[in-house]
Specification:
- Helix content is about 5%, strand content about 55%.
- With about 725 residues, the protein is mainly β.
- The strands form twelve sheets. The protein has a 15-stranded antiparallel sheet that branches. Strands 44, 45, 47, 48 and 49 form a five-stranded antiparallel sheet that branches. Strands 5-34-33-32 form a four-stranded antiparallel sheet, with no helix packed on it.
- The protein is elongated.
Length: about 725
C-alpha cells in the first residue's frame, strides 16, 4: 500500500511538471509574449520594460563622455549644467561641460576621489580615500588660471564615504572604521557631529526639515540626526549595508540595502570596499572580520565584489512607517534619485540598469548603460538627469522626454518542428509597427527571411514556413504614448510520425493494478501526459511488456500490441487502443515457444481522420514455457550405508535449470547433473546420500521405522516444477 501511494505521488508530481511546459498538440498552436521575464530576453533599443508586462518608449539616454578613470563614484552639477565627477583609477576630479567636454581639475595622491559636493558659490568639496582628506577646490580667478586645491579637513579616519552640504554651508563628512560623522562649519571649524556603534557610515542626505539622514554598513541602520546632533534609528534594514539614500519633497525617505546580514557578525566590509587583498584578522571579542588592504594592481574600492543576496529598496514615511518597494536577486543598487516627474530612480550594477520605482512591486526597467554600474545621479538642465557609471567611467544624460522611436526584437522562438506561420495578434496603443521573420537555424543572422511587416494588429505573417520565428516591434512617439502589451503568434507544426525507442518484454512479471480513479481524471484533463508505469512484480504466469515512445508534435498517442510465434509470418493482435506505455497478459494464452512482440503507435487522437501517422517497433525474441519438466526413471537403493539415487529430468521446451533432493523430510539439497553443467533439456542425476544415524526410537505399536523416503524435484529455466518420490525399505 505504501509503494502504491508513493508511485501515485510520483505520477502527480511528474504530471504537474509536464503540464507546466505543455501546449495542446492538436492543430494550431500559439506563442505569446507579454510577461516581464519573457520580454527581457529580447533585444531593446530605446525600449523600457514594465514589471506588469509590456513595452513602452524609454527616456532619451545618451553618453556624454568617457573619462580615463575606471570608476566614477559621485557627481554633482552646478546651475549652468556643468558636471563635477569624483573618480578613481586614476584618482581625479573632472569638470564636464553640458556638451561633454572634460577637464581634469584635481589630481590627488590618494587612490580614489570617493565623494564630492558642489556649493552655490562654485566651490567643490572632494573627499579622497583611503586615509583621505576633504579638499576645497576653488574655480580659477581668471580665464588663464587653474583650479586651486587645498586641504579643507582631515578627519584622521581610514575612509571617507560620503559628503553632504546644508543650506548654511555646513559640510557633513561620513567616515569609516570608527563610524563617525563630522560637521565642518563654513568658517572651517569642525567637530564630531555623531558617533555610531557601527563601523561605517556609508551615505548621507538632508531632509526638508534640516535633519541629517545617514545609512550604515554592518547592521543596515537608517538614522535621523537632528541639527543638534540627537540621533534616532528610523529603520533596521534586513540587509547589512545602506548603499544609497534619497528624500522626496514630502519627506519620504528612500533607502537601498544590500548584502546578507548575519546576526552577531562584525563583518563590516563594504560592497564598495572589497578591492585589494582581503586579509582575515580578529576584532575585539574574537569575532572574525575582513580587513581590506588596497593593492596597487587593483585600486580601492571595487563595486559589487563580496556582496550576495541582491538589493532591496525601502520607503520610510514621514511618520516612520517602513515599506519594501522593490527587490532584486541580480541587481545591486548604488544610487537613488528622482526624475522630472518625481519618480524614484535606482541606478544598479552589475548590469548597468536604471529602474523607475512606481510603487510597491511596480517598476519599469528604463535603460541599460554601456557600463557595469550606475553609481550616482545629479540634476541636469531642462529637467533631465545626469548619471555616472563605473567600469567604464562614463557620464550619461537621461532626458526628461521619451525617445522619438524605439525598437524591440524578441528572442528566437523554436517550434522544434518545421511549421507554418499564421496570424499575429498584437495588443497595443499608439503608433506601433509589427514585423516578423523566420528561419531554419537558431541564429537569425544566418540566412533567415527578411523582416516582413504585419499589416495590422491582427493580420497574417508573410513569412516562410520554418522551424524558428522572431517578431519585432517599432514604437513611434506621438500624441498617444505607444505601448505594446502582448504579441501572440499562431503556427501549425508539420505532423511527424511518432517514435518508439524501445520495447521490453519480461516473462514472469506483471504490472500491478493501481487505482485509476485519479489517474483517469488526469488523463482526461491532460491527454498528452505519459504516466510512468508502476514497478513490475514477479508472477510466473504473466508476461509484462513496456515501451518508450515520444511524439515531436506532443500528440496524444494510442498503441496496438501484436505477437508472432517463431517461424511464423503473421502478426496476431493481442490488444488494441492502449493509452499506457505498458501492458500485462496471461502467459498461458501462448503455447510454449519463442515469440516476438510488435508495438504500433498512432497519433490519430490528435488529428483528423486519414491524417494520422504511425510508427512500429519489435521486441527482442522472448520465450514462453508453461509446461513443467518430467522426472523419469527415479530409483533409490541402499548400498553400504549409502543411498544410491538415480533419475532423469526432461523438458519439452527449455533447459533444466536445477535439481534438488530431500531425505526423510529434511531440507532441500542442491545436486549437480552427471555432466556437472545444466545446459540441456535432458539431464541425468546420479548421486549417493549417507544414511543418517538415527537415535533409537521409542517402542512403536503396529508400526516400524526401517525405511527412508527420497523426494526429488527439478526446475526448468522458467521455474516450472516437477517433483517425484520413492521409498526404500530396509530388510
Amino acid at each position: 500500500m505504501v509503494d502504491r501511494k508513493l508511485n501515485l505521488t510520483s505520477v502527480l508530481i511528474l504530471s504537474v511538471l509536464i503540464l507546466s511546459r505543455l501546449a495542446f498538440a492538436e492543430g494550431t498552436r500559439t506563442w505569446e509574449q507579454s510577461k516581464f521575464d519573457d520580454l527581457t530576453k529580447g533585444t531593446a533599443n530605446g525600449i523600457a520594460f514594465r514589471s506588469e508586462g509590456g513595452l513602452e518608449l524609454a527616456p532619451a539616454f545618451k553618453a556624454l563622455t568617457t573619462t580615463p578613470s575606471t570608476y566614477i563614484w559621485s557627481i554633482a552639477s552646478d546651475p549652468a549644467g556643468n558636471i563635477y565627477a569624483a573618480a578613481g583609477a586614476p584618482a581625479r576630479v573632472y569638470r564636464i561641460t553640458p556638451d561633454g567636454k572634460s577637464t581634469t581639475i584635481f589630481e590627488p595622491q590618494e587612490l580614489q576621489v570617493q565623494a564630492l559636493v558642489a556649493a552655490k558659490n562654485g566651490i567643490v568639496y572632494a573627499a579622497t580615500a583611503p586615509d583621505g582628506k576633504v579638499y576645497r577646490l576653488a574655480p580659477p580667478s581668471s580665464p588663464n588660471a587653474s583650479w586651486s586645491a587645498s586641504v579643507y579637513f582631515d578627519p584622521g579616519a581610514k575612509y571617507i564615504w560620503n559628503l553632504a552640504l546644508d543650506n548654511s554651508g555646513n559640510l557633513y563628512v561620513a567616515t569609516g572604521d570608527r563610524g563617525e560623522i563630522f560637521k565642518v562649519s563654513s568658517d572651517g571649524k569642525h567637530s564630531v557631529f555623531f558617533k555610531s556603534d557601527e563601523v561605517h557610515i556609508r551615505v548621507l542626505a538632508l531632509d526638508p526639515k534640516g535633519n541629517l539622514i545617514a545609512g550604515s554598513d554592518g547592521s543596515g541602520l537608517v538614522y535621523r540626526i537632528s541639527p543638534t546632533g540627537e540621533a534616532f534609528v528610523l529603520y533596521s534594514a534586513p540587509k547589512k549595508e545602506i548603499t544609497a539614500l534619497a528624500i522626496d519633497t514630502a519627506g519620504n525617505i528612500y533607502a537601498a540595502g544590500a548584502g546578507e546580514k548575519h546576526p552577531g557578525s562584525a563583518d563590516v566590509s563594504s560592497s564598495l570596499s572589497s578591492a585589494g587583498s582581503p586579509q582575515t584578522g580578529t576584532a575585539t571579542g574574537g569575532t572574525s572580520t575582513i580587513v581590506v588592504v588596497p593593492s596597487s594592481s587593483q585600486p580601492f574600492p571595487s563595486p559589487g565584489k563580496g556582496v550576495s543576496g541582491g538589493s532591496e529598496i525601502y520607503r520610510i514615511a514621514p511618520d516612520g512607517a517602513p515599506q519594501q518597494l522593490w527587490s532584486s536577486h541580480d541587481d545591486l543598487v548604488y544610487a537613488l534619485g528622482f526624475d522630472q516627474r518625481g519618480r524614484l530612480l535606482a541606478g544598479t550594477g552589475n548590469r548597468g540598469h536604471i529602474f523607475a520605482i512606481n510603487g510597491a512591486g511596480d517598476f519599469t526597467d528604463l535603460v541599460r548603460a554601456s557600463a557595469s554600474q550606475i553609481t550616482s545621479f545629479s540634476a541636469a538642465p531642462g529637467g533631465g538627469l545626469y548619471a555616472s557609471s563605473s567600469n567604464l567611467g562614463k557620464i550619461f544624460l537621461l532626458g526628461p522626454m521619451p525617445e522619438s522611436e524605439g525598437s524591440y526584437e524578441s528572442d528566437v522562438f523554436d517550434a522544434h518542428i518545421f511549421s507554418r506561420w499564421g496570424r499575429a495578434t498584437m495588443r497595443s496603443t499608439g503608433n506601433v509597427e509589427l514585423f516578423a521573420r523566420s528561419g531554419n537555424v537558431d541564429n537569425p543572422d544566418r540566412n533567415w527571411s527578411p523582416w516582413m511587416p504585419v499589416a495590422g494588429a491582427d493580420a497574417e505573417m508573410k513569412v516562410p514556413a520554418a522551424r524558428f520565428v522572431q517578431w519585432k516591434s517599432v514604437l513611434h512617439a506621438g500624441p498617444s504614448a505607444p505601448r505594446v502589451d502582448s504579441v501572440l503568434l499562431y503556427y501549425l507544426p508539420k505532423n511527424v510520425a511518432p517514435v518508439i525507442e524501445d520495447v521490453t518484454v519480461q516473462p514472469g512479471f506483471r504490472y500491478p493494478a493501481i487505482s485509476h480513479t485519479l489517474t483517469t481524471d488526469l488523463a482526461s484533463s491532460m491527454p498528452h501526459i505519459e504516466l510512468p508505469p508502476p514497478q513490475p512484480v514477479h508472477d510466473r504466469d504473466s508476461v509484462a511488456v513496456h515501451w518508450t515512445a515520444h511524439d515531436d508534435n506532443d500528440d496524444q498517442l494510442v498503441f496496438s500490441i501484436y505477437y508472432r510465434g517463431e517461424n511464423e509470418s503473421r502478426w496476431l493482435l493481442l490488444k488494441d487502443d492502449v493509452s499506457d506505455r505498458f501492458y500485462t497478459f496471461d502467459a498461458n494464452l501462448l503455447p510454449d515457444g519463442g515469440y516476438t512482440m510488435l508495438v504500433v503507435a498512432s497519433d490519430a487522437p490528435s488529428h483528423s481522420p486519414g491524417e494520422a501517422l504511425f510508427a512500429q517497433k519489435t521486441s527482442q525474441r522472448f520465450e514462453v514455457d508453461n509446461t513443467a519438466p518430467v522426472i523419469e526413471n527415479l530409483s533409490a537403493a541402499l548400498e553400504a550405508m549409502q543411498i544410491h539415487v538415480h533419475f532423469r529430468a526432461k523438458d519439452s521446451f527449455s533447459n533444466i535449470k536445477r535439481a534438488e533432493y530431500s531425505l526423510d523430510g529434511s531440507d532441500w539439497q542442491f545436486v549437480e547433473p552427471t555432466s556437472q553443467l545444466s545446459d540441456s533439456k535432458v539431464e541425468d542425476y546420479d548421486f549417493r546420500i549417507p544414511v543418517p544415524q538415527a537415535a533409537t526410537p521409542p517402542p512403536l505399536t503396529n508400526a516400524t521405522s526401517n525405511g527412508h523416503v527420497v523426494v526429488v524435484r527439478a526446475y526448468d529455466r522458467f521455474d516450472n516444477l516437477a517433483i517425484a518420490k520413492t521409498v526404500i525399505r530396509e530388510h
